Amino acid sequence: MKKQNLVVAGGGSTYTIGMIMSLIAEKENFPLKSITFYDTNEDRQQKVAEATRVILREKYPELESFSYTTDKEKAFTDADFVFVQIRTGGLAMREQDEQIPLQHGVVGQETCGPGGMAYGMRSIGDMIELVKDVRHYAPEAWILNYTNPAAIVAEALRREFNNDNKILNICDMPAAIMVSYAGILGKEVFDLVPEYFGLNHFGWFTKIYDKEGNDHTDTIKNAITKDGFMPEDAEIANDPNWIKTFKQVERMLNDFPEYLPNTYLQYYLYPQEMVDKEEAGNTRARQVINGRQKRVHELCDQIIADQSLENVELEVDIHGRYMIRVAASLAYHNCDTFIVMVENNGIISNLPDDAMVEVPAMLTKQGPKPFSVGPISTFYKGLIEGQLAYEKLVVDAFYENSYEKAMQALTLNRTVVDAPVARQILDDLIEANRDYWPALVARKEREFAIN
Ligand SMILES: NC(=O)c1ccc[n+]([C@@H]2O[C@H](COP(=O)([O-])OP(=O)(O)OC[C@H]3O[C@@H](n4cnc5c(N)ncnc54)[C@H](O)[C@@H]3O)[C@@H](O)[C@H]2O)c1
Ligand SMILES: O=P(O)(O)OC[C@H]1O[C@H](O[C@H]2[C@H](O)[C@@H](O)[C@@H](O)O[C@@H]2CO)[C@H](O)[C@@H](O)[C@@H]1O
Ligand SMILES: [Mn+2]
């Protein structure tokens, strides 16, 4: 098996240590020659990287090289795979994305609704630059992106790099949900085969099979409606916020029993309740700053101080394992099935060809070979078409620096709907994002001055 040169872009991410533990757990499936971290924030990356050095020394001694850099050429030259996990604006801007809509009585969420729009319009420019840099130094590398909001990033990358079939956008949410299905069934998550359709953070499981072809869908549905639904992946099993979110699956299944929903649908199906449950000063970004980020940084400090792992507990999570299994299937032509984002082109036959849909695909050396879904029925089609129009308008707004398109996008979004509210939120988001959207700000000020 050829050993791979892997680059992690966004090396300072709170997910990196989990990813490293997953690379160690998966070394038989995805053997590595080198790991390189790349980040624009030297200090943030250094802490994670110096702890990683100790972990790898103890647990991956056969790895030929580990390094970290802020130099693109050093990072990407000779890369076989680049995993991209960047966050433009950091958690500080995530907090703005959540709190601004909430101040107007609208869902405040990282990837859904107005927060997702703002995060998308920050991420697109950096993602395009990063992909161009990778392609400059590593024309053949696989780029696996999970930078959020993945739906909007995927649409922008589709427009920008249409002929590049070695870029794949992925989300771990379906896999994390499947970990809980596996728990219900007493099986291993990678032994389950899903049928699924939708957009990123906006989809449904229609069937769950095992590898022998047995259908477990009704067993899972019955178990959820009888006993509820809980997160089981190590990273989220004890997190009160994720426990609440998974509980909502039972509720969604009672209201809409046909298919098993992605957890993110709660924001679109019960927007008012989601707003009512929020604590204005303690939205998810604040919880992550005081929770996962603090935990990861303390863990790194401890490892660096000890230069050993004797005082820490390290866990493998589905996030890392999923990305790595995807990469392994592409690298070694395993032809395994994973839920990924691809251009529709008839997969869901009654949606536009140029939609970026999230569906199961067989992953081969030549890329994803998605399975046909066929036509979807009116309820799902209606929901998806509205969300898809919103996503496309956000990307239009980015390219055209258009206040009008952003206003249309927000008004279409199920979490907003009301045009005057959309305008108030948009104006506040623009103010908070002045440094990120200078051309949009300038154009808006020019046009409003004229009118
Ligand atoms: N698709 C999914 O299902 C999924 C799952 C988990 C995380 N994510 C995404 O992964 C990303 C990382 O999340 P996090 O909470 O760890 O964020 P984080 O802020 O802790 O980490 C992001 C890192 O990226 C770096 N960075 C920012 N801009 C960069 C650029 N242009 N080039 C290189 N590095 C850059 C930052 O300095 C930081 O170290 C986010 O986009 C998050 O939404 C996606
Ligand atoms: O609110 P956060 O920052 O804790 O999580 C936001 C992400 O949630 C989903 O992903 C993961 C989670 O990040 C990971 O730790 C895993 O173990 O469980 C979650 C559910 O799969 C979501 O898919 C991402 O897009 C979000 O960034
Ligand atoms: Mn996701």
Automatic annotation (TrEMBL):
Signal peptide (residue range): none
Residues annotated as catalytic: 172, 264
One GO BP annotation of this record: carbohydrate metabolic process
Keyword Hydrolase tagged: yes
Sorted UniProt keywords: Cobalt, Glycosidase, Hydrolase, Iron, Manganese, Metal-binding, NAD, Nickel
Alphabetized SUPFAM superfamilies for the sequence: LDH C-terminal domain-like, NAD(P)-binding Rossmann-fold domains
Cofactor: NAD(+)
Tagged with keyword Iron: yes
Site positions per UniProt: Increases basicity of active site Tyr: 110
Residues reported to bind substrate: 94, 148, 284
Pfam family, one: Glyco_hydro_4
Matching CDD domains: GH4_GlvA_pagL_like (cd05298)
Co-factor: note: Binds 1 NAD(+) per subunit.
Binding site for Mn(2+): 171, 201
Residues annotated as domain Glycosyl hydrolase family 4 C-terminal: 196-416
Domain of life: Bacteria
GO MF, one example: metal ion binding
Family of the protein in this entry: Belongs to the glycosyl hydrolase 4 family.
Protein name, as recorded: 6-phospho-alpha-glucosidase
